[in-house]
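queue> pop job 88
queue> type: inverse folding (structure -> sequence)
queue> payload:
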């Protein structure tokens, strides 16, 4: 009798992950291959084994019964298979990162992670879009927010401060800036949502409709580059301006700083934080973030 071991194992992984895409990542095959194996298994059993949901898949009554029969056997097999593997057993670990954070903070530090954990194949997905960690082949996302992500776990990394910066020549030619309201005499450079200047000026008692005028950029790294070119004042997170402040391409226009209410968080499925390769990355990035927070001066490579 032919026993479809590959199909049974794939079924076990899909049930455990609750997602065919996540199972495809774990088994290093395409999502189409997973779907094909599940169709063949359903044909063999003569009934549906899964129902599709908004967030993934869930087993039918027949599927749940089959999973109960297979679970213990495959868990034991996986335990035996992992027994001789090193702690950093190689597999691709995919981390989604906003482009500005990737270039301004993470990229200069990645070489250290590679040296410490050569067996972990780390892949950086630099994209500002909202990713679906439950259904995409992505292990973690680093995002800027309040840390509340339903159904996911998050670890706080840092909360950079906001500073006002401008090109030295622009500041020499313009009127003096002694308080936040004085910034309104200059062109203002914005993030895509145009919220930061408005909130910053409101917090200082200098609210004005002029706070929303000026160029806007979808990426904070581009915003900093525009400030370096003298196109206006930028209100940016200090970690993105450190290198340009150090080499003189930018100057602080005002010494007052405004701590942001948001922070950067490492976000993932609760189980993702426990996997061996993932655990190595989590511990490493938390340690790097802690060093950044306690460093006396934040100067980042370009």
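queue> result:
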């Amino acid at each position: 009798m032919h026993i479809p071991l590959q199909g049974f194992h794939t079924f076990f992984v899909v049930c455990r992950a609750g997602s065919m895409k996540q199972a495809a990542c774990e088994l290093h095959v395409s999502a189409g291959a997973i779907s094909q194996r599940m169709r063949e298994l359903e044909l063999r059993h003569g009934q549906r084994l899964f129902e599709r949901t908004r967030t993934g898949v869930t087993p039918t009554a027949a599927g749940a019964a089959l999973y109960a029969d297979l679970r213990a056997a495959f868990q034991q097999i996986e335990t035996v298979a992992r027994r001789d593997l090193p702690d950093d057993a190689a597999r691709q670990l995919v981390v989604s990162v906003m482009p500005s954070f990737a270039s301004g903070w993470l990229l200069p530090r990645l070489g250290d992670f590679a040296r410490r954990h050569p067996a972990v194949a780390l892949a950086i997905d630099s994209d500002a879009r909202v990713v679906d960690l439950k259904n995409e082949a992505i292990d973690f996302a680093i995002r800027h927010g309040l840390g509340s992500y339903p159904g996911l776990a998050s670890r706080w990394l840092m909360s950079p401060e906001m500073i006002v910066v401008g090109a030295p020549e622009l500041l020499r030619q313009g009127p003096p800036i002694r308080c936040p309201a004085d910034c309104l005499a200059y062109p203002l450079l914005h993030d895509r949502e145009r919220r930061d200047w408005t909130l910053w000026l409101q917090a200082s008692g200098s609210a004005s409709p002029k706070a929303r005028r000026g160029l806007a950029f979808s990426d904070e790294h581009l915003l900093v580059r525009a400030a370096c070119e003298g196109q206006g004042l930028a209100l940016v997170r200090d970690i993105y301006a450190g290198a340009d402040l150090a080499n003189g391409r930018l100057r602080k226009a005002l010494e007052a700083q405004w701590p942001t209410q948001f922070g950067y968080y490492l976000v993932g499925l609760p189980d993702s934080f426990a996997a061996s390769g993932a655990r190595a990355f989590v511990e490493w990035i938390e340690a790097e973030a802690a060093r950044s927070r306690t460093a006396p001066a934040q100067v980042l490579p370009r």
